[in-house]
């Protein structure tokens, strides 16, 4: 109790944060800006340092990132991503890609090293979820059509942030961009898919069960346990803790009580986010900022113009009118928390130059300070633009919009497209499950071999046992894939071979096509299983015998396995169904707003 | 991001805490018990230590105490304390006094040093607010008559905990118990009164204003700023941060939005409380526990029997029936968070022996584990007791209850007693305000003399200026005291001198009495002012002139000052009025339940 050095530092931070949030709320500026500035003021670099030892503050401010990513995950959810639509996803990918290219080129133009330019690219690519969604809420713009787009693009960007973090880590730890990026994305994808599927099967039920106790503190501590447990798991696999927290949030979001969880976690997120941003300010030496004000200003201009342009273009190309696109772009013309996370990553890995961190902060502060004005004068900017843009370009834009509108499937085609998508989705999920099983098998094989050798099991037997388990557990999924592809084949045959083309052969050709597709699927599945099991393939004889046994089992138990799969599918579907969990529509809007708390 | 040593430790702690809360909820045991036990399990003293560096965890677990005391303060409130009634306060003081005596005697009997015995006394004196109120909530006993008593005694104990903490610090830092205790209690009382009055005038308005923004995160960060600011203030004055947090909570509790504040702060409290209790476990070496199991068992027995007896006796003596008293006692037969706070204080001051901390933990764990069984079988225990107790004692108890019942003022007397109390309360508050002003004067004099000397103001002039300010600012309050005591004198005269006793002299005697009381008050006030201003008394000539000026000002401005005081009083009353803030009755029960979250 009397060793209050840390508590004193924290108390000072919270006191100035409280003052900052009040003052910046009155000034109608983002609170984040206030946190960073008071951080600089009380930091060790300014005369009369108030915070003596920023180390511990820095330590616990990292909790801010974990809780931030967790709540972002809570607001992201497979359901919401589906409702946002594929268009927004495409727009976000295009926009982030463009910004990455801008950033990298800018870094090269400034004469920075390759790795500095790479981190600059990552820093300018992602908008600030906190700032953008806060401004929507404060400007009472939440129900405008573009607000939905902003939230959608932000969610998609959050996912890409996780990918970028992981890729950057791998690149920074040595190796070429291309090869590493592919390997990392492959591993990452695997981790995410395995984590999501296992998590979705277990955790939402657990959370709902705990929520049934009716004790907020039990629910909170359990959810935090899940969040930090996922962080541990991700870290032990070599991924960032942010990824773990994000996945944990996305999984918990599928529980019926996710609204209550958001409510409980938000105060924690707000407190640690404040700490996080003050800690950013604490690290800043104003002299350093002054030194690099030139590049910072250039980068800030590139961010504001580039982001507005890239987002507007992405949104426009995926079929929205020019005004909506511009407003979406202007709302996202800033960088924020992710830039700090990226810069911190570079610094802690020791790969980027010293000036990257202060430049990142300076650019973010400049963009954040500009952001409210951009959003407030969006209408005027759009009007001004439309007067400046030459007439041919405008008519080109209009005809593009019309062409896109015509492309949309209508009536019967829309129904068939929906069926088609559903079949592909089912096949994808089942293949992902099979991959999961074999990956778990490979993992068990690689890590627990001492356990097996304890029982005198040699390498071959071990391989055979694990492979057999994976194969037999995959049977329901494999059968499901076969059945779905059968149905898909028939659908395709029906659609693809119209009577007017094939005439009298219609029926025969349809029949062949309907057979060929499941047959091809079978071959593809066999190849997949072999490829997956390369690490744990038993001796050839055993493998053959096991395959025969598997096929026999599949034939004999066909009905049972189909039923088993139906039950599994129902369990998963129950968790993901749009009208099942969360229930209240008001809850989901509430969750969207929550995205912007800081 | 990659330096995740601390996050890894924290993640492990939160993961096991989540598991513990689930398991112990199923076992119907207090979660605190689970936290402590898993803390021991993952601590550095057990084989296979999981938490590598408990230092940072320990650092931030201290936040648990701050937030705990803050929420206790939020649930305590002047209003609630008044509704609990003076009887409960008397019962709590009697009970804690008895337990302090038991604890000290036990320490001496065990052959411990004086200071060890003193800390033991403090450790066993206070029940666990978390455990007791949690059990009430879980056993659905909240609406039983004794539950109100338990909550009342717990609130009173919380206040005494603050006093004990401060007294123990002073005693431990050298000096005798008696002299130091008095000086500490005096300073403490002054700090509390000054803090409460200034706080009550400013902070509830500020909080309500901020709450009006309708942004939870702004409100939360502001309230945390207030809480930690009060901690800083208390620490800089030499008091514990716990006291600052408690006072901040008590002040914020008077705002209209205290319900929302409780809601926002609770998740933080729950998370840090979990950390706090796991950190307690982390510090425990099971070998040490085993070594001191004998004393721990003896102390645990004394706590359970002593607490039950002391609380039951206190409650019974203040006029409740035997069954209610026993149930109240059984609900409070445990020690908890305060014991750890006291033990930690002793350890960090370096004054107690090494074994105190593990003994405190062992005793608390034993008591907490026993507590649910005691509460659940309270009825059977009471029945058993009533069969064992000899008949004469029972009839004695009954006649005591009846006698007490007869003492209560009824009808006309009740109204007069209420008026009487109100006058005394007003006089007390006004005198407190006067004291506050002079204390601020003394503080300004002691700390800011460099500021004065800058302007070439010498010691005498400084004293004169400060004293004059304090005196003139006190005038409205002094006049108010005089007027109230005038009214009190008339009331007393009317009541005290009944016609049947004084006969024909009734009127004359009444007149004398009604004059004497305000006159005595004036003299007392003059003495008070002189005593208060001993540090800043100006030279005699100046003082006399100032007094004359003051009296003249009082006479001339009498009406204006009365009006000014009325306005001040209205401002304070508005903050404290029972039907003003908080408004909804359901809110206040909600706040009571909140007391028990962990």
UniProtKB/TrEMBL annotation, chains A, B:
GO terms for cellular component: membrane. It is a multi-pass membrane protein. Residues 578-598 are annotated as: Disordered. Pfam families: Na_H_Exchanger. Residues 14-374 form the Cation/H+ exchanger transmembrane domain. It is found in: Membrane. Its main location: membrane. Belongs to the monovalent cation:proton antiporter 2 (CPA2) transporter (TC 2.A.37) family. This is Cation:proton antiporter. It comes from Oleiagrimonas citrea.
């Amino acid at each position: 109790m009397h060793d209050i050095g840390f508590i004193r530092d924290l108390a000072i931070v919270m006191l100035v944060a409280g003052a900052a949030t009040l003052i910046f709320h009155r000034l109608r500026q983002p609170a984040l800006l206030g946190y960073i500035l008071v951080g600089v003021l009380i930091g060790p670099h300014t005369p009369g340092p108030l915070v003596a030892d920023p180390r511990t503050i820095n330590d616990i401010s990292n909790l801010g990132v974990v809780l931030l990513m967790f709540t972002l995950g809570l607001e992201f959810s497979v359901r919401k991503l589906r409702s946002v639509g594929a268009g927004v996803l495409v727009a976000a990918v295009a926009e982030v890609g463009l910004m990455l290219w801008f950033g990298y080129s800018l870094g090269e133009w400034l004469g920075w090293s390759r790795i500095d330019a790479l981190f600059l690219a990552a820093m300018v690519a992602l908008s600030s979820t906190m700032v953008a969604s806060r401004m929507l809420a404060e400007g009472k713009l939440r129900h405008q059509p573009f607000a939905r787009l902003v939230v959608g693009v932000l969610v998609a960007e959050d996912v890409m942030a996780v990918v970028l973090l992981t890729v950057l880590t791998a690149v920074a730890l040595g190796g070429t961009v291309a090869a590493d990026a592919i390997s990392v994305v492959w591993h990452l994808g695997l981790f995410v898919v395995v984590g999501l599927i296992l998590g979705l099967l277990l955790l939402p039920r657990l959370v709902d069960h705990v929520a049934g106790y009716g004790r907020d503190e039990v629910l909170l501590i359990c959810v935090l346990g899940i969040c930090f447990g996922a962080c541990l798991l991700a870290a032990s696999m070599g991924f960032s803790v942010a990824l773990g927290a994000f996945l944990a949030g996305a999984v918990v979001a599928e529980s019926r009580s996710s609204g209550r969880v958001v409510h409980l976690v938000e105060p924690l997120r707000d407190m640690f986010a404040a700490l996080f941003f003050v800690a950013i300010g604490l690290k800043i030496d104003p002299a350093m900022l002054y030194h690099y004000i030139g590049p910072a200003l250039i980068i800030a201009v590139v961010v504001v113009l580039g982001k507005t342009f890239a987002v507007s273009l992405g949104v426009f190309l995926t079929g929205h009118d020019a005004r909506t696109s511009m407003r979406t772009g202007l709302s996202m013309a800033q960088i924020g928390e992710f830039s700090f996370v990226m810069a911190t990553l570079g610094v802690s890995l020791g790969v980027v130059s010293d000036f990257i961190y202060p430049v990142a902060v300076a650019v973010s502060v400049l963009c954040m300070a500009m952001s409210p004005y951009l959003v407030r004068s969006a209408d005027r900017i759009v009007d001004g633009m439309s007067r400046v843009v030459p007439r041919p370009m405008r008519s080109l834009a209009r005809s593009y919009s019309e062409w896109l509108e015509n492309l949309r499937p209508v009536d019967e085609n829309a129904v068939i497209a929906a069926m088609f998508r559903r079949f592909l989705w089912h096949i994808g999920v089942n293949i992902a499950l099979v991959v999961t099983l074999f990956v778990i098998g490979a993992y068990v094989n690689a890590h627990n071999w001492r356990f097996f050798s304890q029982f005198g099991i040699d390498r071959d037997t071990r391989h055979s046992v694990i492979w057999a388990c994976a194969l037999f557990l995959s049977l329901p999924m494999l059968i499901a894939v076969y059945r779905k592809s059968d149905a898909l084949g028939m659908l395709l045959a029906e659609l693809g071979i119209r009577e007017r083309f094939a005439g009298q052969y219609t029926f025969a050709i349809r029949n062949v096509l309907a057979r060929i597709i499941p047959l091809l699927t079978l071959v593809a599945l066999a190849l997949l299983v072999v490829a997956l099991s390369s690490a744990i393939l038993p001796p050839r004889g055993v493998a053959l015998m096991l395959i025969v046994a598997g096929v026999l089992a599949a034939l004999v138990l066909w009905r049972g396995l189909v039923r088993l799969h139906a039950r599994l599918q129902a369990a998963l579907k129950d968790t993901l169904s749009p009208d099942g969990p969360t229930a209240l529509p008001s809850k989901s809007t509430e969750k969207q707003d929550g995205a912007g708390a800081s």
